[in-house]
C-alpha cells in the first residue's frame, strides 16, 4: 500500500465508503472492504472516523455540501412566488438526485438508530436552508408578494417539504418520470403561491 497524507486517505475512504454503502447497503458493507477499496489499512477507519458509523456521517457531511447555496439564496427575487417555488424545486431535485444513494442509506440508518438520527440532524444543511429561505420569504413579504398575515416559518417548512417530495420521494423512491416531476413542480409551485398570497 502506498503512503498518502491524512486528508487524501480520508477522501479515499469516504469515496470507497460511499460506493460500498450504496452498492451493498450499510449493514453488508464492511470496514475491510472499504479499506481495501481505498487502498489503506482498516485501522485508519477507526482512527479517522471512529468506525463505520462515523464514516457514514463523513459521507453525509460531504453529501450535505451545497456549493453556491448562499449565492442561490441571495439572487434577485423572482417575478412571482410561483417562479420562486419552481426554481427552488428544480434546484432541490438536481441536488437530491446527485446525492440519492448516500441519502437513502443514511435515512434508513436514521430510522433504526436514534443516536445516529440526532447526529445526522446536527450535520444537516437544513438549518442553513431554513435561514436562507426565511430571509428570501421576508424579502418577498416586504415587496408585498406575501401576505402580511402569513406565517413565514410555516411557509419555509412548506417549501422544504415540497422540495423533499419532488426532489427525493418522487424521483428516487417512486421512480417518477421526468415529465411527471415537471408536472408536480408546476402543481406544487401553484399551491405554494396560493398558500403565500
Overview of the molecule:
- This protein has 197 residues and is mainly α.
- The chain folds into two domains: 6-61, Homeodomain-like (Arc Repressor Mutant, subunit A); 65-196, Orthogonal Bundle (Tetracycline Repressor, domain 2), CATH 1.10.357.
- The protein is 78% helix and 0% strand.
- The chain starts with 5 loop residues before the first helix and ends with a helix.
List the helices and strands and how they pair.
Layout: H1 6-24, H2 31-38, H3 43-49, H4 52-64, H5 69-74, H6 81-112, H7 114-123, H8 126-142, H9 152-173, H10 178-196
Helix pairs in contact: 1-2, 1-4, 3-4, 4-6, 4-7, 6-7, 6-9, 6-10, 8-9, 9-10
For the structure shown, list the relevant keywords:
single chain, 197 residues, mainly alpha, Arc Repressor Mutant, subunit A, 10 helices
> Please, what is the average pLDDT?
88
Percent helix, as a range, is over 70%
Number of helices, counting only DSSP H or I runs of 4 residues or more: 10
Major β-sheet annotation? none
CATH class of the largest domain: Mainly Alpha
Radius of gyration of CA atoms, rounded to a whole number: 20 Å
List low-confidence stretches: none
**Residue share in β-strands:** under 5%
**N-to-C span:** 62 Å
Series of secondary-structure elements, N-terminal to C-terminal: HHHHHHHHHH
CATH architecture annotation of the largest domain:
Orthogonal Bundle
Into how many domains do the coordinates divide? 2
The count of β-strands is: 0
| Protein structure class | mainly alpha
Write down the overall geometry. elongated
Query: What is the CATH third-level topology name of the largest domain?
Result: Tetracycline Repressor, domain 2
